[in-house]
Amino acid sequence: MGDPKFSRRSYDTPSHPWQGERIKREAEIVREFGLKNKTEVWKAQTILRNFRKQSRELQARLRGGDAQAKIETDALIKRCSRMGLLPVTGSDLNDILILTESSILARRLQTVVYEKGLSTTIKQARQMISHGHIHINGHRVTVPGYIVSREEEASVTFNDASPFTDEMHPMRISAEQAAANASVKAEAKEKADKETAAKAKADAEEAGITLEDGEV
């Protein structure tokens, strides 16, 4: 069981410490999402890896006619939907396989605060959360890496006692800037999603996997 003071590590580290391409990609993700270090990238990758593993195992069990697998499939898809990783309806196990670590990182409180226009930069969003300026459902949350569910997203706002509630605060972002940031982010996400989907399709075709193989 171990000492409760020293909890076990909840993420997996890279199998090899020196891989130039991976290091460069991780550094880009750290800058994009304003992360403290690469540990937060590895945590997202571990969550994603577990989801993908469950998806592959469930697809295999569904092809074998396992009735329990159908129940577990619905539960997994609903969980991903609640987290905001998948649409509310119309998703299947194949959609889980094309998720990326960016999909997980986009649901962090730090990213949500920035995308809602509550901060001027992604780094400022982290600072505001750590200093207690952000509330979720009326409760202060000081963990930038907190995964915001779809239901909670609308309730992310400023602490009533925070000076940032004043729209004339010099560090508040303007509505025009918030709209511009959202537009740029949406275009980048759409482009990345298309590239990811095309790559996944190419990999599946190369492996000889057809759409029917993964249908639920």
**What global shape is seen?**
globular
Q: What is the residue-averaged pLDDT?
A: 85
What is the strand tally? 3
For the sheet with most strands, the description reads:
3 strands, antiparallel
Helix content: 55-70%
The succession of helices and strands, N to C, reads HHHHHHHEEHEHH
Distance between the termini: 38 Å
Itemize the secondary structure elements and their pairings.
Elements (H helix, E strand, L loop, with lengths): L19 H14 L5 H25 L3 H16 L10 H5 L3 H5 L3 H7 L6 H9 L3 E3 L2 E2 L9 H4 L2 E3 L16 H32 L4 H4 L2
Brief overview:
This protein is mostly helical.
Structural write-up:
The chain has two domains: 20-105 and 180-214, no CATH class; 109-173, RNA-binding S4 domain (Structural Genomics Hypothetical 15.5 Kd Protein In mrcA-pckA Intergenic Region, Chain A, Roll). The protein has 216 residues and is mainly alpha-helical. Strand 1 (134-136) and strand 2 form a beta hairpin. The protein contains ten helices and three strands; from the N terminus they run H-H-H-H-H-H-H-E-E-H-E-H-H. It has helices at residues 20-33, 39-63, 67-82, 93-97, 101-105, 109-115, 122-130, 150-153, 175-206, 211-214, and strands at 134-136, 139-140, 156-158. The longest helix is centred in the last third of the chain and has 32 residues, at 175-206.
